[in-house]
Amino acid sequence: MTVEVPHEPLTAALDRAAAQYGDRVALDFFAATTTYRDLSQGVDRAAAALVGLGVGRGDRVAIALPNCPSHVVAFWAVLRLGAVVVELNPMLGGREAVHLVADSGASVVLAWSAGAGALAAAVAEAGDDDAPLVVPVDVTRDLPLAKRWALRLPVPAARSRRRALRGDPPALTPWHRYVAAAQPLAPEPDAAPGPDDVALLIYTGGTTGDPKAVMLTHRNLVANTAQGQAWTAQRAEDGEVVYGVLPFFHAFGMMLCLAYAAHIAATVVLLPKFDVDAVLAAQRRRPGTFLAAVPPMLARLTAAATARGADLSSFRITISGSMALPAETARAWEAVTGGLVIEGYGMTETSPVALGSPLDARRRPGALGLPFPSTRVRIVNPEDPEREVATGERGELQIAGPQVFSGYWNRPAQTAEVLLPGGWLRTGDIVVRDEDGFITLVDRSKEVIVTGGFKVYPSQVEDRLRGMPQIAEVAVVGMPGGDLGERVVAAVVLARGVVSLDLATVREWVGDTMARYAVPRSVVVMTDLPRSAIGKVLRRAVRESLLAQHAA
After folding, report:
1. What SS3 class is residue 336?
2. What is the pLDDT of residue 445?
3. Per-residue exposure over 489-526, b if at least 16 CB sit within 10 Å of its own CB, e if not
4. Cα–Cα distance, 284 to 213 (Å, whole number)
5. For the whole model, what pTM was predicted?
6. Cis peptide before 296 (omega within 30 of 0)
7. Domains assigned to the chain
8. Model pLDDT for residues 279-335, shown as the tens digit of each residue
9. What protein family does this chain belong to (predicted)?
């Protein structure tokens, strides 16, 4: 199957939705609703505010926010100017965020007020002459008026909730003031971004754990929205309700819950984080029809719905990704919803979806599935990336198609390592293809830990832990973690004279220097770490040793 990729910027989808479905609810945030007409007008005003901050075509603007209407408006406003969105995890530690902001060259950072103060302080400490402007965003202003008033109540519960949502706002001009003072930006057709312009930078890592910004063009993103619609057969006139429980700073959430949702003019129910109670409450208010999630979310929702008698039968299509979908989780979800759940596969470098199971009786939980429309795949010998292997043989998966990225930001050498002649992307994943064309993942050549749908790069965690006085050597590996997929475990050799090391001490040392999901959940003390003939620590051998100890 092939699709025709429209020759247009990603923002054209929002323009169509506003023109054709202006009165339709575009965003639902705890019952605070925004129509497509209002969203479009808000984007024009936010774009003018960004112009006032000096943002122009090609400039980078970092967004470090949870899912909320302000995030959506900022995303489209940046693209409206022909500028580039840099998506960042709002829970990153200050130093790590500053590093990524500096690497991207972002001139403005729209940061969640809960962490904007720490980020601004870290920026100031870095002493960069081209330091970005940090603008705090108070997400409580996106809440319904009644909920905003409730946060002001002089009771401990309200104070705690308010602190969790907005923290202690820094003494910086807040985003809403810039937007309120701006006049909507008039349409300028000649200033619209072109399909080949970079639209988005999302950071990912590799076997070295060195964060790299994946450059995705407007054409890459438009292509993946068109491919997704061809796969699901969803139409704008159907009035789909998409649940935005995946974070927009993750490529999976960005595509299916933001870009694709606008492509089909869907209503997006926004949640700043995944919470079973919040999802079920939203479901009672505005039943969803389309859900993108990771398997642990499906398992928890299924259990809660079964225990409480909650009705999830409105969900007709569910896409599971980022980690393997257990067959039992799929069966239980389909039993409680009556809809279909399929597994999708992709990478940030593929915008991100490249394969999926069919939305019919052929679906296979646990399999990556078949190539998306207009997507070519080949399975090759890992040692000879130009030589394809026979059906049924293991090999490295390579992908080509209009959704494949244009390269890593300012990393030509690393781009050349993964992008081959003909547009083929080396995924590093070892797979096998059967006679029916279904592809199944059999090994991960990159030593990446996938926990709760997020990727953790062991070397990054190891680099931080090596600085602890109590640790002589460390290897970080992923161990079976139940519905999380994997849990991060640090195997350590203690420094001379140190007799013990507990998890609390490790977590205190890490502090806010890395995302919470990357912090080790267990610490195992070993007398030595297995090494190769040249002295390299063998993480795979460490993991096998820990598995054997656990079994014993």
Report:
1. helix
2. 63
3. bbbbbbeeeeeebeeeebeebbebbbbebbbbbebbeb
4. 39
5. 0.86
6. no
7. 11-350 (3.40.50.12780), 371-444 (2.30.38.10), 449-551 (3.30.300.30)
8. 999 999 999 999 999 888 999 999 999 999 999 999 999 999 887 788 899 999 999
9. Belongs to the ATP-dependent AMP-binding enzyme family.
